[in-house]
Amino acid sequence: MTTQQPDHKPQTWPTAARARVAPVLRVIARVRRRRWLQTATARLLAWLAIAVALLAPAAVLARLDVLALPVERAAAAAAAAAAADEPTMSELTSFDDYPVHQSPELIAHAATSDRHFYDRYYFNLYPDSHDLFAIFGLGQYPNLGTTDAFIDVRIGDKQHIVRSSKPLEDRADISVGPIRVEILEPLRKLRVVVEETEHTVAMDATFEGSIEALLEPRQTLRQKGRIVFDTNRLAQTGRWTGTLVVDGVEHAIDGAGTRDRSWGIRPVGEAEPPGIREGMIVLPGMWNYYPMMFEDHSIFYICHQDDDGVRHLVQSERVWNDPSREIEDLGPVEWDHDIIPGTRILTGSTLRFPKVGLEIECTSILPNYVSLGTGYGIDADWRHGMYHGPDLVVQGLVLDVEEIKGLAQYGIIDHLAEFRYDDHVGHGLLEHGFFG
């Protein structure tokens, strides 16, 4: 259905009247988009002001342009107050009907007021052919009032990205525009859907864990008296089935991948003034995160080591597909990394676990430079938790790997990798970052 505007003839005001009313019109033009001028009463007052202007002394009219700025400031303050009275999330949301509260607060309100509180999903997926590596996730940021999601597929020499963001209204809603997560069986089976849009990625894939979900060590970092990291995370290796469409080509997925769920405090949203932490890196030193999937077990290796050799977070565990077998602590790890000269990009690693006599050779197959385009911190215009306005925003990018890796090497890099030890050959995620 189409509509047409009525055929109005333009109104012509006498020149003298236009000259007297012009200052009033300029005031109204400056504040016409403010919330307080959207009501019928306010519009009536505006027309009354024009009528008064036709009779007001010239000296009064000359003052109106000077008065316009304070009026605009008052309007902006009124709009801000009105927005404060309208919370992004309603007072009660659907999860308040479930016995899941951890404090007297509503589910919509985190138990901490820290603006960096977050709750998010991370997934990666690779077919058995290893010709592509997809990374995708969804996060909620209750104290920022936002939620966002992304998918990033490395295939050939390109990375295809779809990303979306919207205000957070109900934490039970784990969808952001075309991207949604469905929990089919908690801690075991999940479905992730990326609906078809004008952009280059669509997907419908289901993950089923090969092991029971594993709670990783809690990560806590404090700088100059302030908690900058305080997170819990569960991790799981498993199999994916479904379809993935990239740039018009459909790929049948029968492959593997890993996922994690983390929540707590970490830097998210718009950058804030650093204050006493000026020049400090939030996660200094080396970050390694290697969840590896073998035929009947998985190995999880984490090492965050700062420039002084202090290890703030470590994990080295073997988890069997058979839940009746106990998780094995592999003990302290020694590492050697193979780095492309002149860069911060790994081609592989050797991990040694002297306590159990284990040595694992790790080889990169396909790196995904996930720090660009997805919200992981390098882009100034798209960060996890950043507010992009009151409406849903969906964007698509196609990035050339050779063009972006020079900058992306300063963030996290996620590799699809092969892992070998003894007679075992497995695959999984080789994630690293070198900061400082």
Features:
436 residues, 4 helices, single chain, nine-stranded antiparallel sheet, alpha+beta, 13-stranded antiparallel sheet, disordered N terminus
Cα separation of the termini: 59 Å
Q: Classify the helix fraction into a percent range.
A: 10-25%
Task: Give the uncertain stretches in residue-range form.
Answer: 1-21, 29-38, 59-72
Structural class: alpha+beta
- Number of DSSP strand runs: 22
- What is the overall number of helices? 4
Instruction: Tell me the strand percentage band.
Output: 35-45%
Succession of helices and strands: HHHEEEEEEEEEEEEEEEEEEEEHEE
Give a quick account of the main beta sheet: strands, pairing sense, barrel closure: 13 strands, antiparallel
Mean pLDDT: 87
Tell me the overall shape. globular
3D architecture notes:
The strands form two sheets. Strands 1, 2, 3, 4, 5, 6, 7, 8, 9, 10, 11, 12 and 20 form a 13-stranded antiparallel β-sheet that branches. Strands 16-15-14-13-22-21-19-18-17 form a nine-stranded antiparallel β-sheet, with no helix packed on it. Residues 1-21, 29-38 and 59-72 have low confidence and may be disordered. Helix 1 packs parallel to helix 3. The protein is globular, with a radius of gyration of 28 Å. The chain has four helices and 22 strands. By secondary structure, it is α+β, with helices and mostly antiparallel strands. A hairpin with a 6-residue loop joins strand 7 (189-194) and strand 8 (201-209).
